[in-house]
Amino acid sequence: MNTLKQNEVWFLTGSQHLYGDETLRLVAEHSKIIAAELNQSETISVRIIFKPTVKSTEEIYAICQEANQTKSCIGIITWMHTFSPGKMWINGLKILQKPLLHLHTQFNRDIPWDAIDMDFMNLNQSAHGDREFGFLVSRMKIERKVVVGHWKDLRVKTEIDSWARAASAWADWQGAKFARFGDNMRNVSVTEGDKVEAELQFGFSVNTFPVGDLVHYINSASEQEVKLLIEEYEASYHLAENLLRNGQKRNALFDAAKIEAGMRRFLNEGGFKGFSNTFEDLHGMKQLPGIATQRLMADGFGYAGEGDWKTAALVRAMKVMGTGLEGGSAFMEDYTYHFDPNNTLVLGAHMLEVDPVLAKDKPSCEVHPLGIGGKEDPVRLVFNGKSGPSLNASLVDMGNRFRLVVNEVEAVEVPESLPNLPVARVMWKPLPDMNTGCAAWIYAGGAHHTCFSQCLTTQHLEDFAKIARIENITIDKNSTLRQLQNELKWNEIYFR
Ligand code: MN
User: Fold this and answer.
1) 333 Cα to the center of ligand 1, angstroms
2) For residues 466 and 145, is the Cβ–Cβ distance under 8 A?
3) Can you give the pLDDT at residue 263?
4) Which of 118, 121, 280, 421 is least enclosed, having the fewest CB within 10 Å?
């Protein structure tokens, strides 16, 4: 997952035959120039592919059908340089299954004050051509993103990229498989959910595998596989003294590496994009997987603990969305609070499984007892997170719909050394402030499990929620509890 350049967005320009050959030639020429500019832009992470102008119901239907069937096509951009009567789009849009972005732009940035004549007016018509198209899409109640501005404008390219990243994550979910080792943690509510509905709406499947099947892979990990992993651990992390060669706990490192080798092979052979497990179901495993899960997440697998398949899928989607961006997206849990009125903070962590993509410095590899799960002491990577603008996102099942809750937060440097805390940790301040942010999150039913991201913005997640056609609640610097609680009530009616 180093690039999204394998993904194509098709650039479709609508018109009609009325204009005659010369105008249509210019329309095609201009569209080609715009598509090429977007395709070459460093701001846009996918390829933008020019397609010949569509001028009839049949042509529009055919290209939508082709877009549906082309795996590499993750979405389409439409633009009406000239007037393209909306009814010609009905049949095509009716069958279109790929995300839609409507680019409301104009080839000429400026009005040529001295030269403008009716030929210019008849060619540069998107001001009304795009309104006709927009009406039809609204009338058909199709979700899309509308981006307005001149096509050379950086803000326009940034908005297109946000949507293209969301569309890439959506494409990645289609047909994706997530493995669940063991069931949900006993009695926990928010990690449960309707897996049938999720598959219908989101396109990914979640299925259970007996932990014994995984243990078989772990036990059959070869000495060579384990040796290579240990070498990688030694090269990538500061090993605690008792894990070094001849160290007292060196065996725990071998066991951890064996677990990683087995899990990696199980997931790769099965074509899984993520997984979940639970400390209540580890029969046959020596340790709760710590470093193994951490490193698998860093390699792009979605994960969440305690059977939380929704968060595992969300983590995967957000990792795809953030491909190539500075900073990471990672499974997280709001763990404990610092309620000092002068410096309120949330400490985020998990029992073991914090993704090293968040690490500020080289992680240390340590082994400590774990009071939960009743297994041998697990090996884990310990580190501090980085500061900077971040967000938490949570996907919950409200019974009649899925809701994506997003809270913008400001991550801060961990202010103290925390010598007795044997897990990786990240600290942040929720927006608009600690009390409002946490109250809003709780009113919205956001989970304790999240995907914490230092590379994505609320815009990416809004675009994603739109493509997935799910409810999206954003808590940011402008949120008030009154407004948010009303929004939740109104949404209740909308989604009924
Ligand atoms: Mn948890």
Assistant:
1) 6
2) yes
3) 98
4) 118
